[in-house]
Amino acid sequence: MTKDRVLSGMQSSGNVHIGNLVGALQNWVKLQDKYDCHYFIADWHALTTGYADPSSLQDSVKDLLINFIAAGLDPEKCTIFIQSKIPEHAELHLLLSMITPLGWLERVPTYKEKQQELKEKDLATYGFLGYPLLQTADIIIYRAKYVPVGVDQVPHLEISREIARRFNHIYQDVFPEPEALLTEFPKVPGIDGRKMSKSYDNAIYLSDSPKVVEQKLRTMTTDPARVKRTDKGNPELSPVFQLHKVFSSKEEQDEVAVGCRTAGIGCIDCKKVLIKNIFKVLEPIWARREQLLSNPEQLKDITDKGTEKARKTAQETMKIVRKAMGLL
Known about the structure:
mainly alpha, Rossmann fold, Tyrosyl-Transfer RNA Synthetase, 2 domains, 3-stranded parallel beta sheet, two-stranded parallel ribbon
């Protein structure tokens, strides 16, 4: 039986952190055994906000690819490729721009939010406004049935469904409307207590050495009420405890929670348990990263094969699209 297709990508705008790992990559690894999964590195998307300084783009692409494989994506089970190596994405993006109302793009929730968040950058560009349109092209060119997203991201997928629906109505029924494959994305706090983000420089990266990871965790923010070792605290106010919810067992979570509330353990003891559990997750990834870093030909082989496979599908779709739009 033919498996349903899943499509997802990750923007190459910096190193991968543990929030990306538990929020996306670990889920992608599970999906590759059940679906026909296509996972790509979105290097064009990185330029929508980082166009002014592309000097680190290729390093980010390489690091992202290494982390895809190190986290457990298997090129024998899924298709891994780089967005810019398949120009059909750009062609479909252009053709979809002919039929997409401007108002649809302007009402995307993150359009104005991101402009406020990144005030230091000039984002008054079509590339930034048209980000959802390129994203739609990325998805529907493979006629994917599912896109793994969290509940809060479902509205972002709706514009892709609307554009696919509009194309099918104007021309012919070419694209399935992509459906959300709802996934629970745990909230991963950064070392300063805010959401873990490259922008905030508060992340623990998969490329960090064990020494750096341990240092970051040892200096991490805890409940501000625990000034002295004997002070009682509230674990729910501690970002360290939020990471325990992601990486530690239920028994360990209960133990550190009781210890925090009763001052039975200090924050250093609490962090030691967390460090041990995060290292359990990262150690096999670190080992695979070392192997991949020493074998660049393996990486090239993976992307060459993945790109060739993905491009065949994209080319087949574009033949249908061109014919529907009178371009043959």
